[in-house]
## 1
Amino acid sequence: MLIQADTLTDYIRKIFVASGCSDAESARISGNLVDANLNGHDSHGVIRTPRYLQWLREEKLLPDRDLSTVSESGSLLILDGNYGFGQTVGPLAVERGIALTQELGVAVVALKHAGHLGRIGAFAEMAAERDQVSIHFVNVAGSVLVAPFGGTERRMSTAPVAIGVPVRNDAPIILDFATSLVAEGKILVAAKGGKPLPADSLVGPDGNTTGDPTLLYGDADPAVTPDQRRGPGAMTTMGAHKGSGLALMCELLAGALTGSGATGPDYPRVYNGMLSIYMSVDRFDTDDSFAAEIKRYVAYFKSSKPAAPDGEVLVPGEPEQRVRTERLGNGIPLANDAWAAIVKAGEQAGVHAAI
Ligand code: NAD
């Protein structure tokens, strides 16, 4: 089915209001989830609604929390998200990092104990809008899903990385990916009848790879929110040993260094840690060459002859911009099972879908 972004945003907002979040927070959550769908990242879109509501009921995710400052010294800021919604504490932390960078030129912000931060590229976009380069390492404490290179048992989270580079008078370049071969939400989408997975997304106890979501979720009814602890297998990393090493570094930087915690089996809740580095372009760009050099290099990069006859070389961020334009016009596609699970969760909260 296809739903217009505004209609979907309003429906999801009402569900979170009915579940105890303030109007402002509910608008942030629904706006952020629908924004992920608009960017083509359905794994981090409205499909997350039932799970967020479950965490809210279980008090694993807390409504309307503010950040607390653990310490602030020079260009280093350490913040605690107090298990509040990532859609609230995430942008607050990023705003603090951007403000410090406007003052000092560079800043490092450690954010611990943040509720699920969703699409990390949204934070790189916020910094790019203020003419700042940013790098974000993230881990997901309590979410042990991914096998290290050479292993079959889960030891790591899907640990995403995002890097944003602003381009004057043009869209920013935003690289934003999970270090697992696919984001966990993409397995959730596949389990609910959406796009099938690459054949090497998961590894079984026998060491063989497959694209079968039951290796992660077991045989759970996909109409009910699947439990990713039930499956006998593990997700694989992207880029073999390199992706595995990058995921390890996310656990160490975003988890251990921030004080949030590298992932493991004994966490009572699932939450994000994030280490962000911000750099103000104006402090680097003393001869005003950055924008022209980016444009020259991107044109050179994209001029590489496509591998496929009808192919095209894109820079990171371009696929999202294209999907966004298309979905703003035509609506957001949702798999039937995903929609059924959202409607069911909405009805539990007392909100009936008039769509
Ligand atoms: P993905 O595999 O779709 O990769 C996305 C990146 O690759 C983007 O930068 C995109 O612009 C670029 N890209 C895609 N196709 C391209 C092409 N043809 N040419 C050039 N560049 C291309 O993303 P993913 O790994 O599935 O991650 C999805 C989302 O999940 C991300 O937004 C990530 O932040 C989010 N995530 C969040 C958490 C969390 O705990 N909050 C955990 C994992 C992932």
Note: The mean pLDDT is 95.
## 2
Amino acid sequence: MAAAIIEEISEFLQKGRAKNVKKLVEEALAQGIDAQEILNEGLLSGMMIVGGKFKRNEVFVPEVLVAARAMNAGVAILEPHLVAAGNEPMGKAVIGTVKGDLHDIGKNLVAMMMKAAGFEVYDLGVDVEAETFVEKAEEVGADVIGMSALLTTTMPNMQSVIDALNAKGVREKYIVMIGGAPVTESFKEQIGADYYTADATSAAEVAKAAVEAKKA
Ligand code: B1M
């Protein structure tokens, strides 16, 4: 029963049917299916299938865009259920997708999981200038700066944020975290960020542990 509705969510997401995805996610929650399971097995697995087809030129930007909208519609329903599991306020995080990059699904998930971990999250959106990361972090007194990039051509803009922090003499104030499909641990080393994580859940766990260690 749970498998059937989750499969349907994945299929409607692949077709970009946001209204159906929204309705089925609500139904799945009402059936008592765990929000994390709906996210991973329904929404993310559907998006992975779309990603594979995009790569093989079986679908194109418009199809991916409507699938992404359907994904966001489903995530919006799940968010309060995922965030409800959270703890006490734990720190402040400024997060965004770097300059030139418009991909926001993964970044939104990281923001959501960080909220669930108890962070006050300032989401700067997409195509964010290096200086904007720095200014916002300074303005709110952030603990963490989180950057997402999905394009190999925009990954270097993560370096620009670190350069801007160094230029202002404030690099050491922040825990700098990076992620996104093309980003790697060795890229993290190369640009001098503090942490790379492969997914949103581990990003939130690592951020929490790093802030706790820094405050200890
Ligand atoms: Co684009 N796109 N896209 N795209 N797109 C990719 C990234 C691509 C790999 C597809 C492909 O060719 N196989 C390819 C990049 C190739 C490369 O750089 N080598 C690509 C391309 C080429 C492009 C365009 C250039 C296409 C064009 O116009 N010709 C264009 C660029 C636009 C721009 O940004 N300037 C473009 C546009 C788009 C859409 C607008 C249509 C849409 C984005 C919609 C949106 O985000 N609102 C889109 C999508 C959806 C994708 C794919 C299919 C899916 C990305 C996604 O949302 N995945 C993608 C293919 C793929 O990745 N397999 C592709 C689901 C998401 C949950 O995963 O974002 O990886 P992800 O996030 C993960 C982890 O990476 C991690 O946590 C998340 C999950 O737990 N994570 C972090 C992410 N950020 C983190 C930060 C952290 C820690 C972890 O710390 C702070």
Note: The chain is about 60% helix and 10% strand.
## 3
Amino acid sequence: MELKDQAAITSGSAFWATTAAGDVPAITLTDGPHGVRLQVADADDILAGQPATCFPPAVASGSTWDPELLKRMGEALADECRAMGVHVLLGPGINLKRTPLGGRNFEYFSEDPLVAGVLATAWVQGLQSGGVGASLKHFAVNSQETDRMRVSADVDERTLRELYLRAFQRVVTAAQPWTVMCAYNRVNGVYASQNHFLLTEVLRDEWGFEGLVVSDWGAVVDRVEAVRAGLDLTMPGPDDAGDQALIDAVTTGRLDATTLATSADRVAKLVAKSLVATKTTYDADAHHALAREIAARGIVLLKNDDDILPLRAGQRIAVIGESARTPRYQGGGSSQITPTRLDDALTALQSLATVTFTADPAEAEQIARDAEVAIVFAATAHETEGSDRESLDLPAAELALIARVAAANPRTVVVLSNGAVVRTTPWDTQVAAVLEGWLLGQAGGSAIADVLFGKVNPSGRLAETIPLKLADHPSYLDFPGEAGHVRYGEGIHVGYRGFDAREQEVAYPFGFGLSYTTFSYGQVRATVTDSGLELSLEVTNTGSRDGREVVQAYVSVPESRVRRSPRELKAFANVEIKAGETVTVPLQIDRADLAYWEIRLNRWVVEPGPYEIAVGSSSRHLHTTTTVQVEGDQARIPLAATSTIGEWLSDPRGAELLGELFASMAAEGAGGMAGAIATDPAMMQMAIGFPLDRMTMFVPDSLFSPEALAKLVDAANN
Ligand code: BGC
């Protein structure tokens, strides 16, 4: 390909199309992630999409904890893409929900990288099995909207690896998405779009990513730097000035010609792959039904006093709140889908029971009083890409409505519609039941009725903690940052990890969700294998309804040499269990998932020692535990002259050598402080934090001279 074609093909020709160059045609990329938003031809509004199935956004599909469902959603999305001529769908979004105020939390799966990674892997596999490419986004650390185009997410390397990159790593290695989309923000000072560490060293060299890196729309600041860092395709286009800058950079030798040629080649390969799939049609009814199934499975039953739910046919029900009639079913911004149809809960409920409805707060008390059960539909205000939320609270009018209805009828059920968790305290104590209805996509209204009436037994689980109040949240003091930087001060203690580390009460813990049936757990058994841990336990449905349980395995490393969160989710299984039945649930934990990122060795390390495994139905409802001994990796941290006496002594070889040295000092009757350290345990305690090379000031030259130290270090490490 000629240089000018290489430059042209590495930027778009239009908002949603790549550039045709030479014999390589153009392809279409479009949003994503929970539906296909193909812009209506000639519409000025880039958000005006042709009708497509609006599946539940990730906040709801993530709460299913069911990769099988996500895979089916991916397959259905591929059908729609092919019907609409879309080659790459811009999703899934897998950034961690670092703060409950994140404006795009509704587009992301979880505060936990395992949940996000497992679900996104299934989604990508489903989509790509239909011949349509995914775009894993936003790489990386795009966990807030405030100043999103510039802010530097300042994250220490261990946190970056263990939390913010972990889900990306899982999806890239397990599913090879055709594309990865870089984020707008900077990561530790460097724009993600020109971050060589992220785009080349980590993504390609370490993880073996084989696809193409596309920019988020408008994320490229300097095209030459971006290509040099590993970015292949700049969107949107055209970008004539950027094309020319690339040509100039190659011509003058500022940019290696093979770097640009490689990126151009990746675009050509993506195009070739994209053009294999044939156009098709899709079954809109079947997709609507799938959207309903996923939505119902994503609903989380938070509270159900006296088994007020499920409702029974023929009951007199008061339905209160505008969101019953006008559903809040998706968030704002680039993921906004024009649905093929839209179910509202009111209509769905009217077909099942005798319903009186108002939205009028003045009437609400009266109709609630006259009904057997009152259902309040309460929604957050608009949540959108581009802005973070200002508060964790429901709008004041919704809170007032809940209070009035609850006072009129104690048999009140609240159904929430929200893109990220809201504060449930203290109003949840005044009502009998709470259904977390998230944003559920176009079939959400029917799905809510399915769960309220028990057609679907709820099995959704919280993929994010509901705190008692905002100030409790681990991210609270370091969000949204200032002066262009946001410090990820809570480090590895993101979400439930932080609440657990500080032993804080929460309103509803990570992993939590009730069912209309009950489950009991047998004793977990664990075996250590070369590839990790194999767990197995029996779970019994002890109630009278068929149901699903999400069995969750958390691991602790009590003797870790680094700071760890008290519990980390390492495996989960979504199992269907008939009433009265017992099933054996196997769970696998990959050895790689037991590792922590050792910054001194710049790699993952599995530590030796006891690993405690706790299995339960949420991060705080742990029913059975066991402990296994794991053999560690070879991961000795080399000693240096700058290592402290304490570090020397905690290393077996170092302790031996230093012991010999101190023994000889004591034997020679060395005086002063050095002698005291060698003979007096109290002095040793005081000197434990001294780097060895600082000892020169206190001991005879011959013992701690640079030459003697170099020999000692050599003897310790070789
Ligand atoms: C969003 C991406 C989206 C792109 C194209 C950006 O503003 O951050 O998620 O895919 O626009 O609409």
Note: The chain has four domains: 22-213, 292-488+496-501, 519-630, 645-717.
